[in-house]
Structures are given as C-alpha cells and as structure tokens.
Amino acid sequence: MRTSLGILALSSVLTGLPVHGQQPGAPSAAQPAPAPPQAAPAQQSPTNLGSDANGNPLRRAMKTGHVSNYDEAKVAPYKLPDPLVLANGRRVMDATTWQSQRRPEIVRLYETEIFGRIPSNAPKVAWAVSETDPAARGGTALMKQVVGTVGSGADAPRIRVTVYIPAKASGPVPLILLANFGGGPAATQPGGGVQLGDPPVAADILARGWGYAMFGYQDVQPDRANTLNQGVIGLTIPPGESERAPDAWGSISAWAWGVSRVIDYLETDTSVNARNIALQGHSRLGKTALWASALDERIKVVFASCSGEMGAALSKRDWGESVDDMTQNFPWWFAGNFQKWAGRWNDMPVDAHMLIALSAPRPVFITGGTGDQWADPVGMFLAEVHAGPVYRLLGKADLGASQGPAPLDSPLVKGDLGWHYHTGGHSATPADWNAFLEFAGKYLK
User: Fold this and answer.
1) Residues with catalytic annotation?
2) DSSP per residue over 397-427, as a string?
3) Region of poorest pLDDT, from 31-45, 163-177, 260-274
4) What's 321's domain CATH number?
5) Can you give the pTM of this predicted structure?
6) pLDDT score, position 28
7) What is the domain range of residue 302?
8) In the chain, how many domains are there?
9) Could you give the strand order of the β-sheet that contains 417-422, starting from the edge strand earlier in sequence?
C-alpha cells in the first residue's frame, strides 16, 4: 500500500494546534519567538480542550477520541518490549549478538514503522567555507560560516553551519553540534524556550577547549504540512510521483540525515576532533538527536532535551502527548506506517527505551521540566531506566536509579546514561546545559 502525500498533511485537523511541546504559560529559559504559521489561535481547534487545573494542555485526538491524561491512577498497566529478546524469541546474552542481530532488528523496526527509511538516492552535499572571523566572541573564538549545497539543482537547498573553535586551540578540539530551530528560506520560529542560537553556556564550552557548531533544521527539510515534496525529501521523489511508500522517510529522518551530512563536513575540518562530537537537540530536535545517533555511530555523546513523545518518553505510558496526538498533528515527521499505531500503542513493537538503547554503549543525556508534563518527564526517566539492561550488557553503567521518583534539580551524571529534571518548562535551561557539560566531560577528551 502506498499513501498520498496530501493525505499525510491532515491539514483540516491541524488548524489551531499548539506548537509541539509548547505549553501555555509554561516558564522558559530562552526568549520566546513567534509561533509557526500552523499555530493559529488555539480556541479555533476542535482538538483543544484547554488546560487542566495545573495548567497542562488537554487535547482530544479526533480519530480515537483519546484525551490527554495527567493522573497516575489512570495510567493503564503496560508491558514494554524487551530490547534484549530477538525477534525469534532468543535472549541476547552478549555484546556481539546485540551489535550484529538485535540492534539491526530494532533499527529496521524504527525505519519501517516509525521514522521511515533514508533512501539510497539521497543527494550528495558539497561543502564550502563562506566566511571566517578570527576574533569572534570578543576574541575568544575562530568563527567559520560553512554552506552545504544539497544536490546540484539551480535552486538546491543550502545547509548553513556556524562553527566556533577556541581561539587558543593548539590542535583539533572536541565539538558540540547543535541542531537548532530556524533555517529555511522564509522560516518563522516556534516558541516555548527553544534553542535559536548560541547555547547559554557558549563561553564555558570554549573555556573547556571545546568547539561548538550550529545549523538550522529547516535548511534540510521544512517543518510544515504539505512539504514532503520540498527540501531534501523532495529531491528524492521521482518526477510526477504523487504517492509515497508507507516506509518512506519523514522529516525527522531527513533532519537526522542532515546531522550526518554536517558531521561529514566536520570530519574534513582539521580544527575539529571528529572522533569527539556530541549532538544536542531540543523538543522535536531531541527526537531527531536520538534517531540520528541510532543511525550514525560517529556521534559520541547525545543530549536530548525535552524530547517527549516518540523521543525519550515511553509511548505505552498514557501521559500527556500520545501517539494519537502525534499521528494526527505531525504526520509529516514520520513514515506513513506510523499512522496505523493510533489507538494501538500497546501493539507497537518498539518504545522509547529501545530508541535510547540504540546509542549504547555511547552515552546519552536526557532532560525534562516540571512545567512540561505534556512531554512526560517521568516517562523519559523511566525509559532511561529500562534502557539500562542494554548498557549493562555492553559493560557500561546505567542511570544509577530504579523505578523510583525522578530526582528534581539533582542531575544524575555518574553513569553512561544521564538525567536532569529541572524546575521549569519546555526549554533547555542553563542548569540542563551545565549538567550536560559535566556529563560530557567524561567522554570529550
């Protein structure tokens, strides 16, 4: 079965939906920006039921009638798939079996059922340095503007990357790559505390002798309904094609592809130690960061901030945003096959603990906020707990916590899985970043 590009837009339902992850009145550590075009006044949408007594957004899924839940007593029992049991029922007992059999099985499930496959005809990217500043950030950094031309068309998309290297660096340095909001020829920015530019700890990163780089995700693929014929995805669709395969890539896979193409460039930059690259993404880009790390083992450390549903939060746990909300509101992020899981969460063959485990044995750091219950911070904590058996099998340290309550404002950074539950809303806070720098400092040498 093939699905229509237009059907996946569901544009009649989308009018009036809030930005993914954004909560009315939630505190933010970054300057909010205007909402994107699809976020019209919320009262216009039949899916919007307002907020509960604690200010959490209540949404109704039109297809299933499901309404957002924030009551632990109403979280139905669920059973997570075991990441260490092969499709044939045999248990994974060693690292070799994980790497050669089980991990590829899980990747294929995510490619087929969730995010879609990156096609073999994805275009090449040609990189060129367009500008340099040897005394950027008050003389503390060398700045490079780099442009990647996607494909060979006259109006080919261009991925713009800004790289900062410590001015006093004497050799190749570790680097944190930020997949940022923004980008695109005429993009408007989503609000809610998202990362729009330099990280709040930029000076600290440089003082550690590390670099950082940033690119706007919409340079790779637009983040709007009815745009799967644009961006890099559009370049892979044969002329005249009006339908897409049910496992064709959605925007999250396209953004993850873009992350890997930026790393391709960083491998050629002699000022960067390409074996010491960390990746950070927030909200939908936190989902992207986890999926990019699953696909590209050159990523040494992952920081997924407030990634929520279909990111680090357990889908089978009914809390806040649900699979039903995702299939309805953001169909272009996913493969067409993802639509069949609306109302059937417990039948899904994967869950967030498996997405996290795909980075093992490489370290993963995850954050959530008290004012961002839509993203289910407790569900993200539990997903890390349940990814622990894979890390232990591979000789690494797990989160160092059990099913117990997610600690508040007390980072867990001693293991190879890291966690920070901050007081506040849907944002990557300075406290999150400081905890991540401590966590990443164990690996970026």
Assistant:
1) 283, 426
2) ---S--SSPPPBS--B-SSSEEEEEESSSSS
3) 31-45
4) 3.40.50.1820
5) 0.90
6) 31
7) 3-26+35-440
8) 1
9) 125-135, 141-150, 158-166, 211-216, 173-180, 272-282, 299-305, 364-369, 417-422
